[in-house]
Automatic annotation (TrEMBL):
GO terms for molecular function: hydrolase activity, hydrolyzing O-glycosyl compounds; xyloglucan:xyloglucosyl transferase activity. Residues 227-252 are annotated as: Disordered. Keywords: Apoplast, Cell wall, Cell wall biogenesis/degradation, Glycosidase, Hydrolase, Secreted, Transferase. This is Xyloglucan endotransglucosylase/hydrolase. It comes from Musa troglodytarum (fe'i banana). It is found in: Secreted, Cell wall; Secreted, Extracellular space, Apoplast. It comes from the Eukaryota. Contains at least one intrachain disulfide bond essential for its enzymatic activity. It holds the Pfam family XET_C.
């Protein structure tokens, strides 16, 4: 669980990465808390990199119906050889399914867990209009109840890791959090409809007419986003409920 402090103009990142071992071909999965202005809705970003694909960031951003400086929430990433699912509390908010067309852009090498705080003045708050103010340092984030489930391997040797980890992977893939039931998919769809404010899938200014194999361009979701990838109509649900902190509910 995570509780963060004053982060205007900054980025708190909870991530898995192997950049220290593979600096040019690293894999990465991110939860990013983007610095916020008091009394404004908080934004969280998820991102996926595979095999050093940093020029093709797969960012999604969401407004969240709670204040992470006031209470702790659970942030989880399920990563298997075929699927990535991001969770906030018990709600899946994003699913990435591996396809042959993704090639090496699906994270596949062993990763470690990191937590870092960055100066995000260039873009993190109000598109860079509000900079970090170091008079508020030190910047602090509290983490608790960290759980790492899976198969531990040597990030360099990786000797017989696939065979040795097969049982652990099978156990992960059969767990409740790895199975997106119709109810969970409905909760994920509601979350994305209400709170997602940016998707890389629709950002024509960054990627032109490039299509990504992990984007569902046939869904109704794409009609809500403009050529910059931003939601054409910012979610009203969050704006009406400012400072009313609550957890997303699967039953809503």
């Amino acid at each position: 669980m995570v509780s963060v402090g004053k982060l205007c103009g900054s980025r708190l990142i909870l991530q898995t990465s192997n950049g220290d071992i593979h600096p040019w071909t690293h894999d990465e999965l991110d939860f990013e808390f983007l610095g916020n202005v008091r009394e404004k809705d908080w934004r969280i970003q998820t991102n996926v990199f595979g095999n050093g694909s940093t020029t093709r960031g797969r960012e999604e951003r969401y407004l969240v119906p709670f204040d992470p400086t006031q209470e702790a929430h659970r942030y989880s990433i399920l990563w298997t050889p075929d699927t990535i699912i991001f969770y906030i509390d018990d709600i899946p908010i994003r699913e990435v399914v591996r396809t042959d067309d993704m090639g090496g852009e699906f994270p596949a090498k062993p990763m470690s867990v990191y937590a870092t705080i960055w100066d995000g003045s260039a873009w993190a708050t109000s598109y860079g209009r509000i900079k970090i103010d170091y008079k508020y340092e030190p910047y602090v984030a509290d983490f608790s109840h960290l759980a790492l489930l899976g198969c531990r391997v040597d990030p360099i040797q990786q000797v017989d890791s696939a065979d040795r980890c097969a049982e652990a992977v099978e156990e992960l893939m059969s767990a409740d959090y790895a199975i997106l039931t119709p109810m969970k998919r409905a909760a994920m769809r509601r979350f994305r409809e209400r709170y997602m404010i940016y998707s890389f899938c629709y950002d024509q200014h960054r990627y032109g007419n490039v299509t990504f194999p992990d984007c569902d361009y046939a869904s109704s979701e794409h009609t809500r986003f403009g050529e910059w990838g931003d939601n054409k109509i910012p979610p009203k649900e969050v704006r009406r409920s400012k400072r009313r902190s609550r957890k997303p509910s699967a039953a809503e």
